[in-house]
Amino acid sequence: MYTGKKLGEAIKSAIELKGVRKADVARAFSIKPPSVTSWIQTGRVDKAHIDKLVSYFADVVTPEHFGIGSFETSEILFNGYKVPLLSWIDAVKPSDNDTLAAISNIWVPTLRKPGVQTFALEVKGDSMEPEFTAGDRIIVEPQQPVVHGCFVVVRENNAEAMFKQYINDGSYHYLKPLNNRYPIIKMSEHFQICGVVVEKFKIYI
After folding, report:
1. Which of 44, 96, 174, 189 has a Cα-to-Cα distance from 182 of 20 to 30 A?
2. What tens digit of pLDDT does each residue of 77-130 get?
3. DSSP string for residues in 42-98
4. Domains in the chain, ordered, with CATH?
5. Sign of torsion, CA 29 31 33 37?
6. Closest C-alpha to 11, from 52, 70, 48
7. Where is the signal peptide (predicted)?
């Protein structure tokens, strides 16, 4: 893996290619924006963030962009963690590991240790573009706290689950599509959040 100035330049170009701000990157990594600036200037990144660096920018660059070879990538990505891929109908049913395993025979790798109810979904449609495109696989954690700005899987009454950004505006709560061609939805007591999206896994082939 690159170090120093070369890694800093790689991170800077990845941010530009992804079209996000340093503040967005900081939020995704649960760090402060000055830390991202430090990454770019010094190329020093805590080892705890390396695996997420690969997955966060996977939609715009390959691991080689950061100087990570195929062997290193295998060590980072294939850590044995995986979760079942569910349909959007099954996503609304609270389940434990054994039940989830019985529902699906397709498993999706995840960089973090999953909880007992963690599952994956395949994104449909274009309402969450440009960050999420059809075919992307998202990791959903039902036990993750819901906070303003996070991405959630939610259902209304008994309908199929949908994927939106959660907006907390004081007394009102909304579901916001990232694609501005779609309307913002005001939440009511008929909505139930099934889980928070904690990771994205993108497949190119």
Report:
1. 189
2. 545 678 888 989 888 776 665 666 666 678 888 877 888 889 999 999 999 999
3. H----GGGHHHHHHHTTTT--GGGGT--HHHHHHHH-SS-EEEBPPTTGGGS---HH
4. 4-77 (1.10.260), 82-201 (2.10.109.10)
5. negative
6. 52
7. none
